[in-house]
Amino acid sequence: MTSAPQSHLPAPAPTALTVLGIESSCDDTAAAVIRHAPPESPQILSSIVWGQTELHAGFGGVVPEIAARAHAEKLDIAVEEALAKAGVTLADLDAVAVTAGPGLIGGVLSGVVLARGIAAATGLPLFGVNHLAGHALTPRLTDGISFPYLMLLVSGGHCQFLLVAGADRFTRLGGTIDDAPGEAFDKVAKLLALPQPGGPSVEAAAREGNPKRFALPRPLLDRPGCDMSFSGLKTAVLRTRDALVTEHGGLRAHDRADLCASFQAAVADLLAEKARRALALYMADAPAQPVFAVAGGVAANQSLRGALEAVAQQAGAAFLAPPLALCTDNAAMIAWAGIEQMRAGTPIPPDFAARPRWPLDTDAAPLLGSGKKGAKA
């Protein structure tokens, strides 16, 4: 009787590691090379990110089939450019790390297939990285912080508070039960006829608006815990817009700006209050050097960053947000997650699969339900 294939442990990680990272979970085609030779800080030798905004501009959002095709056409070129810019060849690498999920399955598959080919041709170890772990571990790449720390991962498809205790040890303290903030920003931008991606468009319009003009709801603030909801807030924006259009025969520029500012203020209030509660749980164990970090595309929003930083200061925790280029999807964070896994001795599955869904905290009850593809979050 033949036994099922088992995960195997990688060989002990050498002192210096050079890893190629590949990322293709949504609409950014990315490749990067990172070198880490302790006690020196990690070096991002190259980071190539090619967006697809123009390809999806006419559709009001990302079209999975178009995204997958673009990844398939450009990923190998991105890898070549990342290696050339880093001044290394495949022979200089110690491993390859690739996003294996969660994400749009066509794009994820494009990256996994390429990474498998490189690993097969070179004999290099191949690590399948959870895209969310890449974001969650980014503060260790940029600032070398120690475990444990509190992370708010806030992006177009995800929003959750995580206690990060190790390279593969994540405890979810709370998350969104419906839309993620980035998704809400995109939908609000579409409602208000602003260009995609919605986050930067809404933020730019909000700078010219009055955040106190419209009394938009703050869902779930009256309930205990760290879970969040943004769907009702988005609906409130829709109803307010419709009322303005009916009253004035259209949406005036200053009405749009005020609505964007009011929406953004509501999101900031929601995240700040839930962060306050998550920090209380985290600080209860009295970490020696408490750190509250935020990562993901929405972390680029300066208004939200300011609100979260104020909460961290009140709680007595250091606040950390990566550089803007490392907040949005990139392959440097995937390469770094691979390095973290190598140093932690994380087992390498013999035949990992591309996954559209992949919760970081597999012991937590699903926030958004589950099905044949697994838990959504």
TrEMBL record:
CDD domains: ASKHA_NBD_TsaD_bac (cd24133). GO terms for cellular component: cytoplasm. Its main location: cytoplasm. Its cofactor is Fe(2+). Its EC number is 2.3.1.234. This is tRNA N6-adenosine threonylcarbamoyltransferase. Residues 43-336 form the Gcp-like domain. Belongs to the KAE1 / TsaD family. Fe cation binds at H131, H135, D329. Coiled coil: none annotated. Required for the formation of a threonylcarbamoyl group on adenosine at position 37 (t(6)A37) in tRNAs that read codons beginning with adenine. Is involved in the transfer of the threonylcarbamoyl moiety of threonylcarbamoyl-AMP (TC-AMP) to the N6 group of A37, together with TsaE and TsaB. TsaD likely plays a direct catalytic role in this reaction. The lineage of its organism: Bacteria, Pseudomonadati, Pseudomonadota, Alphaproteobacteria, Rhodobacterales. The keyword Transferase applies. It catalyses: L-threonylcarbamoyladenylate + adenosine(37) in tRNA = N(6)-L-threonylcarbamoyladenosine(37) in tRNA + AMP + H(+). GO terms for molecular function: iron ion binding; tRNA N(6)-L-threonylcarbamoyladenine synthase activity. One of its GO terms (biological process) is tRNA threonylcarbamoyladenosine modification. Keywords: Acyltransferase, Cytoplasm, Iron, Metal-binding, Transferase, tRNA processing. Substrate binds at L153, V154, S155, G156, G157, D186, G199, E203, N301. The gene is tsaD. Binds 1 Fe(2+) ion per subunit. It is found in: Cytoplasm.
